[in-house]
Amino acid sequence: FLAGIFHLKVPESSHVGSAIGRIRAVDPDFGKNAEIEYNIVPGDGGNLFDITTDEITQEGVIKLKKPLDFETKKAYTFKVEASNLHLDHRFHSVGPFKDTATVKINVLDMDEPPVFSKPLYTMEVYEDTPVGTIIGAVTAQDLDAGSSSVRYFIDWKNDMDSYFTIDANEGTIATNELLDRESTAQYNFSIIASKVSNPLLTSKVNVIINVLDVNEFPPEISVPYETSVCENAKPGQVIQTVTAADKDLSPAGQRFSFRLSPEASNKPNFTVHDYRNNTAGIETRRNGYSRRQQELYFLPVVIEDSSYPVQSSTNTMTIRVCRCDSDGTILSCNVEAIFLPVGLSTGALIAILLCIVILLVIVVLYVALRRQKKKDTLMTSKEDIRDNVIHYDDEGGGEEDTQAFDIGALRNPKVIEDNKMRRDIKPDTLRFPRQRPPVEDNTDIRDFINQRLQENDVDPTAPPYDSLATYAYEGNGSVAESLSSIESLTTEADQDYDYLSDWGPRFKILADMFGEEESYNPDKVT
Fold first, then answer.
1. Where are the transmembrane segments (predicted)?
2. How far apart are the C-alpha atoms of 75 and 124, rounded to whole Å?
3. b/e string for 133-153 if b means 16 or more Cβ within 10 A?
4. Which helix (H) or strand (E) holds 336?
5. Which of 21, 172, 199, 356 could be joined to 8 by an S-S link, Cβ 3.0–4.6 Å?
6. What are phi and psi of 478, to 5 degrees?
7. Which domains does the chain have, with CATH numbers?
8. For residues 521 and 526, what is the distance between their CA atoms, to the nearest angstrom?
């Protein structure tokens, strides 16, 4: 048996799943037959609640199935049915063994915190946005009947939250510092809303702010910047497919467009075909090209991106004309073609350059040797004055006569000279060196030379220092015999030179010089 009506008061702040009331049915049976089962009869408001049986007390426990809201609905009414869990078939005719009761629930209005319009807020802002720029707003309301005003503030947890500020009354969020995407790409913080009438009632919501990359750099052509075209190319032939590269962090769906610059649009050489998939093709517009006429072409290509703000750049591609076979295989693209009209090959140019380098080296070496020689001459003339005297007054046996005179005797009179044989004449007999009187330390150089001169004049075997004696030797078998004075007598007066007159006009002057002293008159010599 159930009582007729049960009245319950439930606060709207009750949690889902919590017990909000109990009802009890009276059953005089005992034991197993006293077990009761409770069910909510479908009807008004029954879908917000649930009922279970307390196995110990056999009471019906009413639980909250969905949250309550006083502002939405203030009261609920539904019926609950109680029945025996175990029925005895012998007493079916006596039945029914169940009863119903009405349950009325009144929802109590509670002072609740503000409610945000979204469970999560996501915002976006470009880097380098000026400080104080509003980037978004959050909204919270007091749903109570009194409808109190709401105040907003940031839940400070770390220094990253200081990059933004929020208007306490409006809930608008603005930048507080300059943002750099390369430093921090995303910010995550919480906003708290409280009621003015009861600041202790607060609610919190998360805010995520994504920093967008500003399009700072224009796109550029990916390498290579240089391509080639065959001399036998046909119109419409694709010679190079180009792509674009952007130093910015390109967003998803970034698009690049390609076109010719305005100054190159009217030239009939090449064109750019945009494939609209971030690539483009360089196509020919002429039937054949000539390296002799023009070896290089410069094609300005404009590339533009789709980011904000839009950036574009002009990239110049270098197109080189090459010699190819019939299949389009490149055979030659070097600079040799430039010199072909004048008949010079690469090998000839290298040979010419090599010759020029060798000539320059020879000139440098020659100049260096001249300077060194001049320097040595000056040093020699300044260091030894006597060397100058001997150098100009020596009348030895010619430039090849290296043993005719020992210059050391003039420099150091104490040096004892060894007699050395002349190599420019052939002496008849060998002579041994004669002992010469020692020279005193203070002997005059002139006296020393005169003494040596007198000794050699009276010595018939001494090699003469006259260059005439060196070069006048006729050798064996000469008809005129030797003109040298090696075998001459001690004085010229003992010799007979009359035979010179028999030699003809060519020897007349010589015969007059060595003839009778009275017959020679120098004034008559012409």
1. 338-369
2. 44
3. eebbbbbbebebeeebebbbe
4. helix 336-339
5. 21
6. -75, 140
7. 5-108 (2.60.40.60), 115-212 (2.60.40.60), 220-332 (2.60.40.60)
8. 11
Q: What is the mean pLDDT of each run of 10 residues along the chain (526 residues)?
A: 80 89 82 82 80 88 90 87 76 71 88 89 92 94 78 84 90 93 89 90 93 86 87 92 84 86 87 94 92 91 88 93 89 63 66 92 91 67 48 53 52 48 50 55 73 77 52 51 53 66 80 63 50
Taking a C-beta distance cutoff of 8 angstroms, is the pair 114, 203 a contact?
Answer: yes
What backbone torsions phi and psi does residue 347 show, to the nearest 5 degrees? -60, -40
d(CA 185, CA 163): 13
Relative to beta strand 19-24, strand 59-64 is antiparallel
Amino acid (1-letter code) at residue 373: K
> 245, 222 in Cβ contact below 8 A?
yes
SS3 185: coil
- Among residues 91, 191, 69, 70, which one has the least CA distance to residue 139? 191
Question: CB of 206 within 8 A of CB of 118?
Answer: no
Q: Which helix (H) or strand (E) holds 37?
A: strand 36-41
Instruction: List, in order, residues 6 or more apart from 421 with CB less than 8 Å away.
Output: 403, 427, 430
* Cα 381–Cα 383–Cα 389 angle in degrees, nearest 5: 50
- 392 in helix, strand or coil? helix
Spell out the alpha helix ranges (H) of 238-312: none
Encoded tokens for 381: 């003339």
pTM, rounded to two decimals: 0.40
62, 43 Cβ separation under 8 angstroms: no
pLDDT for the residue 526: 44
User: Per the structure block, which two tokens stand in for 165?
Assistant: 């500020």
Instruction: Give, to the nearest 10 degrees, the angle between helix 385-393 and helix 346-383.
Output: 110
Cross-strand pairs, 297: 319
Of all helices (H) and strands (E), which one includes residue 316? strand 312-324
Alpha helices in 342-493 (DSSP H): 346-383, 385-393, 408-411, 445-457, 467-471
Give the DSSP letter of residue 443: -
**Closest alpha carbon to 314 in 425, 451, 247, 221:** 221
